[in-house]
Design goal:
- With 301 residues, the protein is α/β, with parallel strands linked by helices.
- It has helices at 51-60, 84-91, 126-131, 211-222, 241-252, 267-276, and strands at 6-13, 28-34, 40-45, 70-72, 95-98, 106-109, 115-117, 135-138, 144-146, 149-151, 171-176, 179-182, 190-195, 199-204, 229-233, 258-262, 289-291.
- α5 (241-252) packs across α6.
- 50% of the residues are buried.
- The mean pLDDT is 96.
């Protein structure tokens, strides 16, 4: 795949906030890039859990989504899909790329048997997106969403990582034809691109498939042995220390120059990333701006 000319990532929704931003349990990232054909592009990865907070943050940076090229949903959980129709409507109607499992009914069951729905919220389904003028593109495989920026497609589970396993000793359930089945979150995907003069970047949603599996998927698709930037969720919250440490050691083999884990990483694992990558680590939060090739001046606030 051809290189893109530049990449700027603004965090629209994240657990923590800085300056005038509002935090939430959710994730949304705005990618602004010059694509492989030299054209300016905007891509939204995920749309958070709280639309009011996300739209507030967008207003702070004067982003109205009118020139967004497309939306990518990393997977079908409520905290990544809650403002999709609003952004589609504001854009005038764009494509929404995601896996075929994204809009299926999903349930989280805790260890006591208590259940709650965790699929996209009401008003954020396929019919709602289409009514807002959007087109939903469902695909299991990788897809180039704009020239030079691609999804990973469904991520192969090939490392030690136990992706799709809840950490509360409960169960994730996906409904298929009215029947319950264990949900391994096969729809989990990420974005990747090779930035000219900088190097490859990988941008995840939750990385339910595992951040290491995600990097191995990008390596298979691209042939890269190293990456420059890694940003996004890692789903390490609640993991045992040895599991987190092994994850960090495997990521380190890709020799990243910028590491910015967020959202479902959890404070403890985030601090371990900082310890492992003291010069490469960037603390993420709502309204954080990261540009490929430029280390933020204030990395830890």
């Amino acid at each position: 795949m051809e290189q893109i000319g530049s990449l700027k990532i603004t965090t629209l929704a994240e657990n923590y906030a800085f300056d005038r931003g509002i935090g939430q349990w959710g994730l949304s990232l705005l990618l602004e890039l010059v694509d492989a054909k030299g054209e300016p592009r905007k891509v939204v990865l995920d749309t958070g859990m709280n639309g009011e907070a996300l739209l507030h943050n967008a207003k702070v940076i004067k982003e109205d989504f009118s020139d967004v090229d497309c939306i990518v949903l990393s997977h079908g959980h409520y905290d990544h899909t809650a403002t999709t129709t609003e952004i589609v409507k504001a854009s005038g109607g764009v494509k929404v790329y995601c896996h075929p499992h994204t809009f299926t009914e999903r349930i989280s069951e805790n260890r006591t048997g208590k259940r709650r729905r965790i699929d996209p919220p009401k008003g954020q389904g396929i019919a709602d997106i289409e009514a807002a003028g959007g087109t939903v593109v469902l695909t299991e495989g990788p897809v180039e969403v704009v020239p030079g920026l691609s999804t990973t497609g469904e991520v192969k589970r090939r490392s030690f990582e136990t992706g799709g396993v809840p950490l509360n000793q409960g169960r994730w359930i996906r409904m298929v034809d009215g029947e319950e089945t264990d949900d391994l979150i096969r729809d989990d995907l990420a974005l990747w691109a090779d930035v000219a003069g900088v190097g490859p970047w990988v941008i995840t949603g939750c990385a339910h498939a595992g951040p290491v599996n995600t990097l191995l998927q990008v390596q298979e698709l691209s042939g890269f042995d190293e990456i420059f930037g890694f940003i996004g969720g890692t789903h390490l919250i609640g993991r045992q220390d040895d599991y987190v440490q092994r994850t960090i050691e495997e990521i380190a083999k890709f020799k990243p120059k910028l590491v910015s884990p967020c959202h479902c990483t959890g404070f403890k694992a985030t601090s371990k990333f900082w310890q492992a990558f003291p010069e490469e680590f960037v603390l993420n939060n709502s309204l954080r701006i990261i540009e490929a090739g430029k280390m933020p001046r204030h990395r830890l606030i």
